Amino acid sequence: MSQSPSSSRRFFSLLIFVLTIVETYSSSCSSTFHCPPFNLSPPFPFSTSPGCGHPNFQIQCSSPRATISIKNLTFSLLHYSSLSSSLTLSPHLDSNQHNCSSLRFSSSSPNRFIDLTGSPFRVSDSSCSRLSLLRPCSPLTLPNCSRCPQDCKLLKNPGRILHGCESTHGSLSEQGCQGDLLSFLQDFLTRFGFEVEWDESQDPYFAKCRDCRVKNGVCGFNSTHPNQDFLCFSSQREPTTTVNNHVAVLCLIFALTCLLLAISVAVAIFRSRRASFLSSVNEEDPAALFLRRHRSAALLPPVFTFEELESATNRFDPKRKIGDGGFGSVYLGQLADGQLLAVKFLHHHHGATAADTEHCKAFSVKSFCNEILILSSINHPNLVRLHGYCSDPRGLLLVHDYVTNGTLADHLHGRKSKMTWRVRLDIALQTALAMEYLHFSITPPVVHRDITSSNIFVERDMRIKVGDFGLSRLLVFSETTVSSASSSDYVCTGPQGTPGYLDPDYHRSFRLTEKSDVYSYGVVLMELMTGMKAVDQRREKRDMALAELFVSKLQMGLLDQVIDPLLAGDDDGGVAAVAELAFRCVAVDKDDRPDAKEIVGELRRIKSRTRLGEDDVSKC
């Protein structure tokens, strides 16, 4: 049967109409844009195109940052997380201050503070927690409260600046106070901002958007309608009339042609990727090229193949897993010559989605290169040694010493804890020697940034090795750096580390120095003396952090209440001397803390006095 001209015209008219709809949709609501901090088109509810996304949260591209308005308040977008649909916002300050502080915002709200109530955004717990810890230093100097009442309220409770973050804590210690709290708040909000999370359950548009996406639609709204009604843009037009048999046959032929074309393209892509993969086997990985640009090949550790380490760990058998770090899992490996080593697989996550895996890879590469560059430049008996690495498209791996006797945390807080004072004093001295080596024997110096009892590994003979350099930093000043009056340089970087060991001065000022390691080491000394954990939620709230509990008892002359009962009558006065040293290590002002050389010298004197006391007792 021949095809009529009218049928052909109807078919091509329908085809052109569908293509027009798809083209219009693509150009309006699916365009890729480069508007910081987004790299690609953001998901609902955000959009830069009028009529797309959410009507109340349109993003305006501007230099140097994109802006967004929420409840008549304008914010700069500092960061966007696609995984949690969260934004990091920096508010725009009002320049008309009338002799008050600059912490005012262009808004019709009378209290001039940031209140997102009524919007589907809520301030994250982490931002609230940081603000709740801020306090002005005593004595409190109040501004003119009749002229600037908001300033007075902020000085008494800084969390009020974000509605819902009002502090519920009682009085805190003065170690975290700020001399000029209002200026600190202004600088903090401008540079680092605060994080808000989109709560889909509070957004009436979201339920409609979810139904739209189920139908393969794109969420938008009617920008010309007074109520801005929700619309679901569809890339396909459902037929509303019956199409005759001729058009149906042509549509079937067209669909089969497209299917064959798609199969051909898929086969071509598969062959191309397979050829690319096979050719890349003989090419050097980008991470390896980066390492060679920053370090001579002769100074880098040996390179293992992925197959070697896969065989050594029995294909990364879960039964061989000996630990989980912040950047991946650690497996026990046995090389062909019988040598036992620890193999860290930096982004080996079973069951993770492709998007999650790519995110983890990007996050882990920095730690991977950081640890190789640092460990390849150190050689000390009390530091974990790097035996090699593997940079492969299938994974990033580091090969370390395997320490057979667990961690210091296991020995101190486990049921089998029987460590004598002499053993604990030896461990304290060895750890201090490792820290002294990092701070004074390497150029540029290395700040470990995570000295904890869980990162101190114990050998069979009770000698120790400090490990896990994933968070460590070389004190090279490529970022914004300043030299203080005491000539101690620092690097400005976001605080990272383990709760209970993190230097409060570093957490407050973002200034990383060697004295940050000294603070963490002081907490480890307290663990050695008390057998208690650095943070224990079973203790009372004011005593939850071991550093605060220990310092409080020492100042009140009640040190015996926290000393490990196993050490009773076993130290000959050495515990009191080490307690005084630990107290100095956790001083609020970092300039009052001893450096690693002073710590080593003091521990050697204490150990010498303790040994002399033991000799006198043996003579009797």
UniProtKB/TrEMBL annotation:
Keywords: ATP-binding, Membrane, Nucleotide-binding, Signal, Transmembrane, Transmembrane helix. Its main location: membrane. It comes from the Eukaryota. Pfam families: GUB_WAK_bind, Pkinase. ATP binds at residue 344. Residues 1-26 form the signal peptide. The chain crosses the membrane at residues 247-270. GO terms for molecular function: ATP binding; protein kinase activity. It is a single-pass membrane protein. The keyword Transferase does not apply. It is found in: Membrane. Residues 316-606 form the Protein kinase domain. Gene3D superfamilies: Phosphorylase Kinase, domain 1 (3.30.200.20), Transferase(Phosphotransferase) domain 1 (1.10.510.10). The keyword Transcription does not apply. PANTHER family: LEAF RUST 10 DISEASE-RESISTANCE LOCUS RECEPTOR-LIKE PROTEIN KINASE-LIKE 1.4, PROTEIN KINASE DOMAIN-CONTAINING PROTEIN. This is Protein kinase domain-containing protein. It comes from Brassica carinata. The lineage of its organism: Eukaryota, Viridiplantae, Streptophyta, Embryophyta, Tracheophyta.
